[in-house]
Design a protein that fits this description.
By secondary structure, this protein is α/β, with parallel strands linked by helices. 24% of the residues lie in helices and 26% in strands.
């Protein structure tokens, strides 16, 4: 190549690269702009919106605007309660300009977050006899309002029937927003409000319609079923004839059937945008909800970048209890999300309800599986069928992707499909389209023995990893392998439960290791709850079956269980703080299953990073004896103690504080959290924490401490007895953690140990107020 030609090509490539970079810089994206609270300049403007607009006008000053585009058209939301600020479409250069303005606290790009019963109320003991009936004590949550941020709601579901519901609380300030296929009459005394937030999603240029999903409604109406399911789990009305095509039959009701529901649709087919979520929290605060339930999130991020953490801090200041899903990225360590100390972070556990779908091999061996296939049209599965496992090539046939299975290989046969890549029910459709007549869904090593069931489109069952290894070995070593499926309906009480769900996200918290997360676990596997009446039970567009209920699994399902229980406690104790309510649930949580054995995490006892304080027990939580209370100002001091800067704390809490002044006024400050996390680093061999407990039980109560020390740690508690003379009295105690000599050597990485500190009521040994202890030993 001639040097001159090469030079021209290089110049051209440089020009293209420069032009591309310039175009990228000029491309508008959504940003959330947080402003200083209580700004004096805001008073110079006729409205909050005009003040917010002034910042945008300053950012675009001198920049040639697109024809007919006004700066005001770029503002997506003007926030007021959850955060001081606004979200807008900006170029990178405009975002940089705003960052440098003195009244701007932070400029954050919009993030996309993802979504993460006929029996569970019985499993939790909510309908117990006599004095143990939590619904009777709490009036089923009457008077409380649960705000659910999710995919919307199907208002015609019988779970939102308002027969017998009390009047709408006078404090309610919300609305029933009209939209596509949704009118003001869609709400009632159960579903008292509904709104939708789509601006952040829409400006991201994300198409609303997906070829693999049902049509989306531009309203609060639910298109995917997730929001209907979670809202009914939290507070659904009783439905006496609930089942999933005959399986799991019984009376369906939410945790707080007397509570009111307000729905805020923030999630669409392409995810949940943080600008929309923040707008919903902003409005929910103004609407005066009592509980916020968020079954959404992602991977852990720092608190000062976490829109949910920032918005919910303001909600907590307004006395709103916030409950969040911990995420479905387990069993990966440090995968737990939504870890702000002012929210209840919930992991997932199992129920003792099973739906057997056994694989009987031709050699007589039985492989246990589970399925909610309705059991009709089983002639193709009741007889033995040839079993095939299609592998090789690059089409993903082992995962049964649509279009990957050769008809000549699977016609009329039972097909093994590995989990992963595509949806579990979608695999059955792929088998059906290619001529297969039944499916065995096989867990891979990452799924282990997880048993999330589905209402399959063809006769099918899910088997665990150990069973899948046996099955594949049988297919590999047999000339013409055959099997049949045997469906066993619904079986209750014959299996250990609760156990930790394999997918439930684990601690320690990556973003906030000084607080033990998750806080607790709740039922989240194979939960049956309400479903839109225009969807099949799989939610797939080609599923023509119609149901009122279906089954789902995830921390998305465990979150509304705790949200509903939170409403029950709030109804019983309307003056309690969100922290006191969370304390009641954590300090009474169960460490043992229904058989009296330690809750399991796979093949081992569950540790604190899997279950936090334990499995929620509403029967005990309604009468906790003692609570650990926290005021919002305490969270500010806590952020100071863990090294957050003044600007970080301002971004998170909207408080412009001096940590030096705060900590000098509170030497040795410890956040009064119901769990205790201690981190040894920098050569330290002793740590001390302080806790305060408030008596919410009998006036004259005496509690004695009982400690199960973490391995390698000496624990000293002073005082060892707490003597209360009246209700609402608060007493303090201190705990010293001392490394034993054998534990003081050089450490590689970090090691962990856990224990328990329990205050036992001397007059009622059944009343125990337990705090889990987590100890981390880092390099020192």
């Amino acid at each position: 190549m001639e040097p001159k030609t090469l030079f021209v090509i290089i110049i051209f490539l440089l020009f293209v690269s420069s032009s591309s970079s310039s175009l990228e810089t000029m491309k508008k994206k959504t940003y959330i702009i947080q402003l200083h609270p209580n700004s004096q300049t805001a008073k110079a403007f006729p409205s909050k919106f005009d003040w917010h607009l002034s910042f945008l006008q300053e950012a675009v000053l001198g920049v040639q605007e697109e024809e007919d585009e006004e700066p005001s058209s770029r503002i997506i939301y003007s926030y007021d309660s959850a955060i001081e600020g606004f979200s807008a479409q900006l170029t990178e250069s405009e975002a940089e300009t705003l960052k440098n303005l003195p009244e701007v606290v932070a400029v954050r790009p919009d993030h996309v977050l993802q979504l993460q019963t006929t029996y569970s109320y019985k499993f939790l003991g909510l309908n117990g006899p006599g004095n143990s009936n939590v619904w009777s004590k709490s009036r089923s949550g009457q008077g409380t309002i649960i705000g659910v941020l999710d995919t919307g709601v199907w208002p015609e579901s019988p779970s939102f029937d308002d027969t017998g519901m009390p009047s709408i609380p006078s404090k309610w300030r919300g609305v029933c927003q009209e939209g596509e296929s949704f009118t003001s009459s869609s709400c009632n005394k159960k579903l008292i409000g509904a709104r939708f937030f789509i601006r952040g999603h829409r400006v991201a240029n994300s198409p609303l319609d997906s070829p693999n999903m049902p049509r989306e409604y531009i309203s609060a109406r639910d298109s995917t079923g997730h929001g209907t399911h979670t809202a009914s789990t939290a507070a659904g009305s009783p439905v006496s004839t609930a089942s999933v095509l005959g399986n799991g039959a019984g009376v369906a009701r939410g945790m707080a059937p007397g509570a009111h529901v307000a729905v805020y649709k923030v999630c669409w087919f392409n995810g949940c945008y943080s600008s929309d979520i923040l707008a919903a929290i902003d409005v929910a605060i103004q609407d005066r909800v009592d509980v916020l339930s968020l079954s959404l999130g992602g991977f852990p991020i720092p608190l000062y970048d976490d829109t949910i953490a920032i918005g919910t801090f303001r909600a907590t200041e307004h006395g709103i209890a916030v409950v969040c899903a911990g995420g479905n990225n387990g069993p990966l360590a440090s995968s737990v999300a939504n870890t702000a100390p002012w929210v209840s972070t919930v992991g997932a556990g199992t129920l003792d309800r099973k739906f057997p779908g056994v694989v009987r091999l031709a050699n007589g061996k039985l492989l246990y599986g589970e399925s909610l296939y309705p059991g009709k049209g089983l002639k193709s599965a009741e007889r033995e069928l040839e079993v095939v496992y299609v592998t090789g090539g690059d089409k993903g046939s082992e995962f049964c992707l649509r279009g990957s299975l050769p008809r000549e290989s699977i016609q009329g046969k039972m097909v093994i499909c590995d989990r992963g890549v595509n949806g579990r029910s979608e695999k059955g459709q792929a088998v059906k389209e290619a001529g297969g007549v039944a499916m065995i869904l096989a867990n891979t090593e990452i799924n282990q023995e997880e048993d999330s069931v589905d209402v399959h489109l063809i006769p099918a069952t899910l088997i665990g990893y150990e069973e899948s290894v046996v099955l594949k070995g049988y297919v590999r070593d047999t000339v013409r392998p055959k099997a049949r499926l045997i469906f066993g309906g619904t079986v209750i009480g014959r299996s250990r439960a609760p156990e930790v769900a394999q997918f439930s996200a684990r601690g320690p918290s990556l973003a906030n290791p000084s607080i033990l997360k998750p806080d607790l676990i709740a039922p989240g596997v194979n939960i049956i709850a309400a479903w839109p009446q225009n969807l099949g039970p799989t939610g797939l567009p080609y599923d023509s079956r119609r149901v009122n209920f279906t089954v789902m699994s995830g921390t998305s399902m465990s979150c509304p269980h705790v949200s509903g229980i939170t409403a029950l406690i709030r109804s019983s104790y309307p003056n309690w703080s969100p922290a006191a309510i969370k304390s009641a649930m954590m300090t009474t949580a169960d460490l043992y299953d229904r058989r009296g054995k330690e809750i399991r995490d796979g093949e081992k006892p569950a540790g604190v990073f899997a279950i936090g304080a334990g499995h929620v027990n509403p029967v005990k939580a309604i009468n906790p004896g003692l609570v650990y209370n926290i005021q919002p100002v305490d969270y500010v001091a806590y952020l100071c103690t863990i090294g957050f800067t003044r600007s970080d704390i301002l971004a998170i809490t909207h408080k412009n504080v001096s940590c030096g002044v705060i900590l000098r006024g509170s030497p040795g400050f410890s956040l009064n959290y119901p769990s205790i996390s201690v981190i040894f680093k920098g050569g330290k061999t002793k740590e001390m924490v302080t806790r305060r407990v408030t008596n919410v039980g009998s006036p004259n109560s005496v509690y004695t401490v009982n400690v199960k020390a973490p391995m390698g740690i000496n624990v000293i508690v002073k005082p060892k007895r707490l003597v209360f003379s009246h209700v609402d009295q608060t007493l303090s105690y201190r705990v010293w953690f001392v490394l034993k000599k054998g534990n003081r050597g050089e450490k590689v990485g970090a090691s962990f140990a856990d224990g328990q500190l329990t205050w036992v009521n001397s007059r009622d040994s059944m009343q125990r107020v337990r705090s889990p202890i987590s100890v981390t030993l880092k390099n020192h």
